[in-house]
Amino acid sequence: MNRHKTFIWLILSLFLISITLSGCSNQTGKGENKLAEIKHLSIGTASMGGAYFPIGQEISNLVTKYVQGIEMTPEVTGGALENPRLVSNSDVEFGLTNANLAYFAANGTSPYEGKLEVSAVASLYPSVFHIITMADSPINSISDLKGKKIAVGPAGGGTLPILEALLEEYGLKLDDIVANYLSYNDGFMQLADGNVDVALALSGYPASAVVEISTSKKIKFINIDDDKLNNIIEKYPYYSKVVVPKDVYKLGNDATAIGVPNVLIVNSKLDEQLVYNVTKAIFDHLDEFKEANATAKQINIETAPNTPIPLHPGAKKYFEERK
């Protein structure tokens, strides 16, 4: 009898242990599934000191906050020139670039080889091509740049294609200047110290590097002649004329400059619903975006779908629903 009871208790004990282990296994599985449900996305920006990184950071915050199961992080990259390659190669899923570079990348024209797998999510804010020198400099025109030391921005930045187009209009080439490849902050520090004659930046205004030098030094914009600027815009329709008010940088006069929209791009093969959700997270909460980032105040949702390359189907779906 005792043996029989012992056997029954043994069976019951084994049964209870098996249930407990099964429960633990299921809980572990649920935990693993929950972790597996979190999808990590990244957005290519530029250097920490530029405008792209804080824009990418706030986009990441909005996406992580409002898209369930998604965590997005901003990645420091070489900038606007490099980001289309990173997006196309799936090194990052999203990226920030200039309208002209997005067009070149999608169409496989220089500086890119072969058509890249990039689509547009939206046009964001315009960047202004700053050409800055000291107020007492004898440099007053683009034609005066020949032989001068110029901080042209980082090697992977968006200044170079615009600079080359501008120099060409004045009968010059990149080889006609002494190019110093520096970050915007470093370039303007070198200008302040007298180590370069001119510093360039492609940024929304006010650009932090330009503001910093203008607080301690008198500077001036090198203006572009109207006929030359009109020729460039006619040849390259993704550029535009921008007037920078004189009070932005304590200038003597308003400045005329080349402007180019900044575009959020995505890998063309990324899931439609995912891109829709990301687009919705950004533009349904545009007021929050603008409150967190001063540059974002220039984003206009009405012109956001006007991009130099085709919209990704997910982004297109979002903007069509708004009509």
From TrEMBL:
Pfam families linked to this entry: NMT1_3
PANTHER family with a match to the protein in the record: SLL1037 PROTEIN
Protein name from the UniProt record: TRAP transporter TAXI family solute receptor
Organism of provenance: Thermosediminibacter litoriperuensis
